[in-house]
Please model this.
Amino acid sequence: MDRIRIVGGNRLNGTIPISGAKNAALPLMIASLLTNETLTLDNVPRLADVAMLKRILGNHGVDCMVLGKRSGQNGMQGESIELRAGDIVDTTAPYDLVARMRASFWVIGPLLARMGEAKVSLPGGCAIGTRPVDLFIEALKTLGADIDIEAGYVFARAPKGLRGARIVFPKVTVGATHVAMMSAALAKGETVIENAAREPEIADLAACLVKMGARISGAGTSTIHIEGVDRLAAARHAVMPDRIEAGTYAMAVAMTGGDVLLEGATAANLEKPIEVLTQVGAEITATNRGLRVTRNGNGLAPVDVTTEPFPGFATDLQAQLMALVSRAEGTSHIRETIFENRFMHVQELARLGADIHLDGQVATITGVGKLTGAQVMATDLRASVSLIIAGLAAEGETIVNRVYHLDRGFERIEDKLGACGAAIERLSG
Ligand code: UD1
Model:
């Protein structure tokens, strides 16, 4: 298993290209199931989760072709892939594939909408809480599906097709909003989704579906209107930049000090993290090439932050912020409200010398003068990158074990940080 070795203490200076967003690429790839024509996606990040989803879609009969390099492109740019679900040969998504990545459960919507049936294993993914699927099931039932849960599988049937309806989510959920929107795109009649997730990735999926011929308005707000159509067609769409990756590198620069351009990042999707980082002591300015992050080397200020659905502070940046304020001059509080078990990085950060006290869903972080390198273990995707951020500022050598979690969501992190002056390398095997 690969490990990452970091020797802390270097400032970051240079340019980091921001990849396409994992959390947009996955639903966009899944949307290919909705049509028998070709969906071409550009700026797809090279990530383990993307590779995994290619396998899952392939099992349903989707041909996936990665386009070759084009003139003017370099290795830091994402892939262009063509996905063609000409014939869906299998409407079952088996346990051994779905258990590895929660988002693969989302195929249930397009399969059901297009084929009238789907049998999908209950999901796995990061161990950050129980993450049930009740809200997906309620939404699909509202659209007219019959659902049974048996032997770890969800069986969904709608032999006469789905019909438009009013779906009111009792709680904001990104995944179930994606699934409801994709399913309703091919349902008969009008669907209104209320209390929809407002994450920018929802709007990115909607933009692609509209290019495919769907009739959707309001995506990105909490009320989405969808007028079902009979069929969707070929389209080409570029995956939006990864706001979580951008926020993560912004925190890394805030941690080490320096001056880095996050190429391709946009302030519009990062308002809350920018507000928090500015409070902590970073300076962030929008340029026509991306976001420039600097810190002059003065001490870091503590913050009080609560994770919330977008546009609030993202739970996917919580671990990274905790690593950052572990070096602040004073006491910070971070309340996690999205997932009940998303503090697994706390004990690993403590191994590096962080002083963190957990009380239920609230972490109290008392800033320490220095962190010291140690062996640590990555436990989930965002937790693992928080250990990298801490390692960049720790004295001496930090070894992050089990980096496969990192490879699920961060493209070439050691290359991107290394190019800006970090002493970081991957140790294979
Ligand atoms: C997505 C993101 C993930 C991010 C999360 C919250 C992707 C691929 N993943 O995950 O990176 O951390 O949004 O921003 O985009 N819930 C239920 N019942 C359900 C569905 C969800 O109770 O049927 C709960 C979850 O347990 C959680 C909350 O709703 O407590 C939010 O989850 P959700 O927004 O659905 O997260 P994901 O879509 O899995």
Notes: Confidence is low (pLDDT under 50) at residues 125-129. The chain is about 30% helix and 25% strand. Residues 283 and 294 are 5 Å apart (CA to CA). The radius of gyration is 21 Å.
